[in-house]
Amino acid sequence: MHSNDGFRELGRQECLGLLAKVSVGRIVYTRQALPAVLPVNFCLDDDGAVLLRTCAASELARAVDGSVVAFEADEVDAVARAGWSVVVTGRAAVVNDPAEHEHLNRVVPCSWAPSPVEVFVRVEPELVTGRELVGGRTLYGVRLSG
Amino acid sequence: MHSNDGFRELGRQECLGLLAKVSVGRIVYTRQALPAVLPVNFCLDDDGAVLLRTCAASELARAVDGSVVAFEADEVDAVARAGWSVVVTGRAAVVNDPAEHEHLNRVVPCSWAPSPVEVFVRVEPELVTGRELVGGRTLYGVRLSG
């Protein structure tokens, strides 16, 4: 769908395809009633859920477990005014099923702050939205293939 | 300050210095009771406030005016497990003072979705926090100069 504001709305599958190409995103949650945002590395599960690994005792694990969060990734070329951004919104949960841990331990990238006791967090892909910047006042007439 | 989790906490001036080096960040706010996040280009005011330009009729302008938001920027090298992130948390407001508009029109970068009627949004730098990833399991022993 093309809007008239220089952005093209992306479909769910386009969004998940873009997310699969990058390894760093940002989890958005609430901390002490204030908005909080933290870059993390991640991967996608087969169903589009966002998977990440963190310290079991981390503030992040405590804050997001059971809450609706947003997870964002983007690639933006500020000079060319081109790029894309994707947001997954859904309930986050610490994965407590030991049967899943072996699988997740293989596929989910290591935390940047390794800890002896790590947990996995899954963000359900209840709402997957994204947009591509296509109509900005480009300086060089190029845009990301993104 | 060095923590023992692989991150170094950054001071306010370090954070503002890093923010001044980049042109794209992400504004985090609440939309219909859900967390929302949107990449935008921006600049810093002399006092560290985040300044951005958007369409007067945009959902963003309506949603953030008068609310506490977070504004995040980062540079992360996922392979080297190195980088930094900075978050400015504070009240956002649409600037209504006509006397400020001329100045802001000169210094604030153009919106990616230009509109005939644009407004400026200022995020007060009430809380400025950041961290540098310094102790990850680096693969190449390098880290961003940040």
From TrEMBL, chains A, B:
<dbReference type="GO" id="GO:0003677">
    <property type="term" value="F:DNA binding"/>
</dbReference>
<dbReference type="Pfam" id="PF12900">
    <property type="entry name" value="Pyridox_ox_2"/>
</dbReference>
<protein>
    <submittedName>
        <fullName>DNA-binding protein</fullName>
    </submittedName>
</protein>
<keyword id="KW-0238">DNA-binding</keyword>
<dbReference type="InterPro" id="IPR012349">
    <property type="entry name" value="Split_barrel_FMN-bd"/>
</dbReference>
<dbReference type="InterPro" id="IPR024747">
    <property type="entry name" value="Pyridox_Oxase-rel"/>
</dbReference>
